[in-house]
Amino acid sequence: MPPWAGPVASYLATGLRETALLALASIAASLLLGTLLGAVLTQPSRAVRAVARAYVEIWRGLPIIIILYFIFFVLPIIGIRVDTFSAAVIGLSLWGSANMAEVVRGAVQSVPRGQAEAAAALGFSWTGRMRHVLLPQAARRALPPVIGLVVNLTQQTSLAAVIGLLDILEASQRSIERLTLSGGSSHAVPILGAVLAVFFVICLPLTMLSRWYERRLH
């Protein structure tokens, strides 16, 4: 093993830990908030639906990198300061929850209408129909696109490097710069190859799981 490999591997491991924590936090927040919003998008009240729809359209319509810049650089101007990790979690969660809401809305509306009507006839409130009848049936329909969203969010964590978060991509870039300055050789190919391999190992099994489950549903 070359002498530079050990320190670089240790530094990349630190970045990988930040990437994993960022992915887990943003995925959890996106799934939780997105499920709630998706259910609200099927609510009978037009005013309530309009508020949820505005949230979804705003955050789905913006590139993630713009959201990250807005949270980290614009909010401090009005006195709201967040660290890089929190800004990355919030930015990814806003985008992820908006997309998750659309997944849940579509899945709920794909459940046969008679199911909701039967639950209403039995005296279930809208909340009861959602909790006990519609969401459980919608879950299996939503699973393939949810897995796709999880993969997408995992990949998009690399954008957090633009606001200075020491994720695995930022760690690799700093390692390349240090090696270039200290020894004249960047060793960029093996370092970036290791980053590529990490994302490949994480995302490929999830993508294959999504395709397998879609085939089972069909």
Automatic annotation (TrEMBL):
<feature type="domain" description="ABC transmembrane type-1">
    <location>
        <begin position="16"/>
        <end position="210"/>
    </location>
</feature>
<comment type="similarity">
    <text>Belongs to the binding-protein-dependent transport system permease family. HisMQ subfamily.</text>
</comment>
<dbReference type="InterPro" id="IPR000515">
    <property type="entry name" value="MetI-like"/>
</dbReference>
<keyword id="KW-1003">Cell membrane</keyword>
<dbReference type="Pfam" id="PF00528">
    <property type="entry name" value="BPD_transp_1"/>
</dbReference>
<protein>
    <submittedName>
        <fullName>Amino acid ABC transporter permease</fullName>
    </submittedName>
</protein>
<keyword id="KW-0812">Transmembrane</keyword>
<feature type="transmembrane region" description="Helical">
    <location>
        <begin position="188"/>
        <end position="209"/>
    </location>
</feature>
<keyword id="KW-0029">Amino-acid transport</keyword>
<keyword id="KW-1133">Transmembrane helix</keyword>
<keyword id="KW-0813">Transport</keyword>
<keyword id="KW-0472">Membrane</keyword>
<dbReference type="InterPro" id="IPR010065">
    <property type="entry name" value="AA_ABC_transptr_permease_3TM"/>
</dbReference>
<dbReference type="InterPro" id="IPR035906">
    <property type="entry name" value="MetI-like_sf"/>
</dbReference>
<dbReference type="InterPro" id="IPR043429">
    <property type="entry name" value="ArtM/GltK/GlnP/TcyL/YhdX-like"/>
</dbReference>
<feature type="transmembrane region" description="Helical">
    <location>
        <begin position="62"/>
        <end position="82"/>
    </location>
</feature>
<feature type="transmembrane region" description="Helical">
    <location>
        <begin position="20"/>
        <end position="41"/>
    </location>
</feature>
